[in-house]
Amino acid sequence: MTGTDNGLIPYNEIVQEALRAVVGRVLGLVAEAGALPGAHHFYITFKTQAPGVTIPRRLKERFPDEMTIVIQHRFWDLRVDEEKFSVGLSFNQIGENLTIPFAAITAFHDPAAPFELSFQAQEISPDLELHEEAENDGPPAATKAEDGSNVVSVDFKRKK
After folding, report:
1. Residue 4 clears pLDDT 60, i.e. is over it
2. Residue 152 pLDDT more than 80?
3. How far apart are CA 110 and CA 50, in angstroms?
4. Which residues are paired to 70 by β-bridges?
5. Could you give the dihedral angle defined by the CA atoms of residues 154, 142, 98 and 51, in that order, rounded to the nearest 10 degrees?
6. Backbone dihedral angles phi then psi of residue 97, each to the nearest 5 degrees
7. Comparing C-alpha atoms, which of 86, 103, 89, 142 is closest to residue 16?
8. Which of 91, 93, 116, 142 is nearest to 26 (CA)?
9. What one-character-per-residue DSSP string does the chain give?
10. Is the CB of residue 123 less than 8 Å from the CB of residue 135?
């Protein structure tokens, strides 16, 4: 966590960090169990150019800004630590290993819960094109919590 120049408490940074820790804890539970419980599955969206993201060059070229992966049926070697997670996924029937720091994540969705977290996105460079959805496990479900009771969206505006 970085200090602030104006001496105010950086609530936005603290909340973002805590919510990303929720993602880490959930992924850690799945890694310990070795499988997803019940119908749970995750859509995780992240910034492909964020520091610490390690994905194959062909995926970075296809998704130059942001990418959504699906952790559901075909994944392996899920490993989680305090800063990041790594997982093996299949893209067009080619196995790949990805490493994604929690700081790079912009959205986490478990349609089975239903539960969703959205994180404050970094500014998108205007020269980057919109991305296609990842093909590792099919397109994301359009399911949303009907009453929104389990949806948390964080979008604080930072004063300068």
Report:
1. no
2. no
3. 23
4. 43
5. -30
6. -105, 130
7. 103
8. 116
9. ----TT----HHHHHHHHHHHHHHHHHHHHHHHTS--TT--EEEEEETTSTT-B--HHHHHHSSSEEEEEESSSEEEEEE-SSEEEEEEEETTEEEEEEEEGGGEEEEEETTTTEEEE-PPPPPPTTSPPPPPP-SS-SPP----SS-TTEEE--PPPP-
10. no
Closest by Cα among 158, 160, 159, 71 to 111: 71
Enumerate domains of the chain plus CATH numbers: 11-123 (2.30.30.220)
**Is the CB of residue 96 less than 8 Å from the CB of residue 56?**
yes
- How close are the terminal C-alpha atoms of the chain, in Å? 18
CA count, 13 A, side-chain hemisphere, 117? 20
pTM, to two decimals: 0.73
d(CA 8, CA 4): 6
Tell me the pairing of strands 151-153 and 115-118. Answer: parallel
Q: How far apart are CA 90 and CA 29, in angstroms?
A: 22
- 14-73 per-position pLDDT tens digit: 999 999 999 999 999 999 999 999 999 999 999 999 999 999 999 999 999 999 999 998
Token digits of residue 12: 């936005």
